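Re: flavin-adenine dinucleotide structure - here you go.
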Amino acid sequence: MSTLVCIKRVVDSSSEVVLTEDGQGVDGRYAGFTMSAHEECAVELAVQIGDGPTVMTLGDADAVEQLRAALAVGCTAAVHVVADAQTFGPADVAREIAGVVRDRSHDLVLLGNDAADSGDFQVGIRLAYELGWPVVNGVTNVSVADGVVTASGAGPDGHETYRVPLPAVVTVLEGGVEPRYPTVPGRMKAKKVPIEERQPTAAPAGPARVRLLLPPPAPSNVQILGKGADAAPAVVDLFEQLGVLAR
Amino acid sequence: MILTLVETTPAGEAIEVSREALTFARSLAAEGGGVPVDAVVVGTPSPELVATLASYGVREVHALTGEAFDAFSGAAWAAGILAVRGSSVVVMAAGTPRGNEVMAHVAARAGVAMAANVLSFSGLSPFVVTRQVVGGSALEEMRLSDRPAVFTVAGHAVEAVPAETPGAATVVEQTPEIAAADLVARVVSAEEPEPDLSGSLKSARVVVGAGRGAGSSDGFADLLELTSLLDASLGVSRVVTSLGWRPHHEQVGQTGSRISPDLYIPCGISGAIQHWAGCSTAKNILAINTDPDAPMVTKATYAVIGDLHEVVPAINEEIRRRRSGS
Ligand SMILES: Cc1cc2nc3c(=O)[nH]c(=O)nc-3n(C[C@H](O)[C@H](O)[C@H](O)COP(=O)(O)OP(=O)(O)OC[C@H]3O[C@@H](n4cnc5c(N)ncnc54)[C@H](O)[C@@H]3O)c2cc1C
Ligand SMILES: Nc1ncnc2c1ncn2[C@@H]1O[C@H](COP(=O)(O)O)[C@@H](O)[C@H]1O
């Protein structure tokens, strides 16, 4: 078998989000870039599956940083479809991933359940239809034995388990495995792995985006009752005033 | 017509976010000059479910039945929905994991776009929706020019409100032929789901909230004491449940419970938009946070700036002192 894991370079959104001037994307110049937590877990699962997985991304030249991060924790090959990810819609990305899968004869593809920036919740599923393969969605644990993928995660029916024969697509949610930290030798090795560059197979139809906006900041009317432990009497006064202090 | 997937609890009731999606569908239908709203459910609906759907203005209930629907498969559900779709111009669901998954299948099969986690729409031609992106830190306006327009409604983006005039909710059972390929990826076993323990949280008059600021699974003692002193319920952020510090049924927010207590006391919770979605209807909010600029603090009615591990024990102490009358 041969595993491919798909990651996306996204702006680190833990700090304040700034939009690009044209409103078509998030400006990462201040916040920096990362890959989504779901994809870190997908990479970890791919490494645990243990067949020396390939990592791929569709992104600009800088996305090499995320490919190297995945190589440093155990991926053994990398494919870079060089393109501006913001101009690709989910169907475009799925088609490009399918091209990589066919050319390199992968039979298991792991993706994140949803990308941390565009949050489309669909590239993995569209990829499955491109390839004509089954897709298991939103799982936290994945293992492979005798050509069968066992995948499980929490769902409305309880802890749900799927069993599908290869080839298959699986989309991963964070929470089932702890992504490992790269070791120094891991990082050194990652620097030497050649990255296969590809051009997109077709011009993108593009996302259906009109523009991005920031939610308007809510006006603040907060009344500060105090700082630290000294605020306790004022807090309990408030409880009494609101009548929530059960006797 | 507008076709809405309605998900049900293990007891067979429509989940709250699906009722919200039906409410959204009705406002869309009204804007479109009174197009009918139909529902799709999986399995034979109980009389209670049919009554609920009627109260939400549903015209027809398409019930997908047969062996293919005994266990969940995203592909099979989507095939079923497309089989009963008829002339629907919109196919939609709540933005749950199942809802997003099934709508992505529907969109891929129909060769149309899909918008996840929609908050509102602004015009029908062109049909433009606004949805949450970047974990809710930004919004995206998206043009859905394909028909059917396929999307999901973000949890608690609208309030679930029954219709002024009920619908007929005529049940039409359908057993569409499902291809074997669509049943390959299906749930083969499921452990008993956690019973829904969120009832007391949803109805509590006072909720004490805890987020990443609690620090660890051992960091809840003072918060739990405050909870009991106030005869309150504990509610937590997703970080707390993802890290396994507290069970999921205590989660407040878009993918947890929506609460409307008289007083909500979020401690060490930043106030991310998905959390806010679950607590914005609280009458009073008292935020306890080290960061005076945290969104939860700026949106709150009252706030204490400080370390919850100092502030909460001091509050507990003060309550005990006043109770003992000293
Ligand atoms: C599709 C989707 C659905 C989601 N659904 C939900 C949901 O239903 N519910 C939900 O909660 N989240 C949800 N989230 C996650 C949400 O975006 C945030 O990541 C999460 O709410 C943050 O949790 P937090 O406030 O505990 O942690 P953080 O954002 O890390 O905030 C911690 C806060 O604690 C403060 N703090 C730290 N230490 C202390 C201390 N000692 N004393 C006092 N204050 C302290 C900090 O100043 C900070 O404000 C969802 C996200 C996505 C993408
Ligand atoms: N540009 C990209 N390059 C590689 N993988 C991607 C890209 N965009 C999305 N993906 C994968 O598809 C998953 C779901 O993305 P989305 O459907 O956009 O929310 C992500 O978690 C990634 O694993």
